[in-house]
């Protein structure tokens, strides 16, 4: 059913649980996992000209760390990639390019709770993705489950 799963990551806490659920699904279906982080070009473009290169470098470092964290958490191989552009558009394009079967993402990213239900990037991915999207909410600390076997059931 799932041969290729893309985990969209920005390194936020919300994504950590999505990574666990994606790995659980990938393990159950013997699927490949791709970790993708997108440097938001609008953040770079909105910054003062004299700070743009420094900001781009900082965002590249953050993106590389985010995919490296996913790779470190894996039991098997993970293909990693970073891109620059509009996050939702880049994630959807990447899913098309690699013929993904599923995109997994957290419900809120680095920008916090700026939406009631889904973060703005997650919402755009859900609306525009060429493949099914699994959004995984971050559990409250009291609800956190250390048992990886039940993560997918709770998603």
TrEMBL record:
The protein, known as = Universal stress protein
Q: Could you say which protein family the record assigns here?
A: Belongs to the universal stress protein A family.
Q: Which organism is it from?
A: Natrinema salsiterrestre
**What does the organism's lineage look like at the top?**
Archaea, Methanobacteriati, Methanobacteriota, Stenosarchaea group, Halobacteria
* Chain ranges of the UspA domain: 1-137
Per the record, a Pfam family? Usp
Gene3D superfamilies of this UniProt entry?
HUPs
């Amino acid at each position: 059913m799932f041969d290729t799963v893309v985990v969209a990551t920005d390194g936020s806490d919300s994504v950590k649980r999505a990574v666990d659920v994606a790995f659980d699904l990938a393990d159950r279906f013997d699927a490949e996992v791709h970790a993708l982080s997108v440097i938001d070009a609008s953040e770079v473009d909105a910054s003062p000209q004299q700070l743009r290169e420094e900001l781009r470098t900082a965002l590249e470092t953050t993106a590389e760390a985010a995919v490296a964290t996913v790779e470190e958490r894996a039991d098997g191989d993970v293909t990693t990639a970073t891109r620059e552009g509009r996050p939702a558009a880049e994630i959807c394009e990447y899913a098309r390019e690699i013929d993904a079967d599923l995109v997994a993402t957290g419900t809120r990213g680095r920008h916090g709770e700026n939406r009631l239900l889904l973060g703005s990037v997650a919402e755009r991915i859900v609306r525009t993705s060429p493949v099914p999207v699994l959004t995984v909410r971050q559990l409250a600390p009291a609800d956190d489950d250390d048992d990886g076997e039940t993560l997918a059931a709770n998603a």
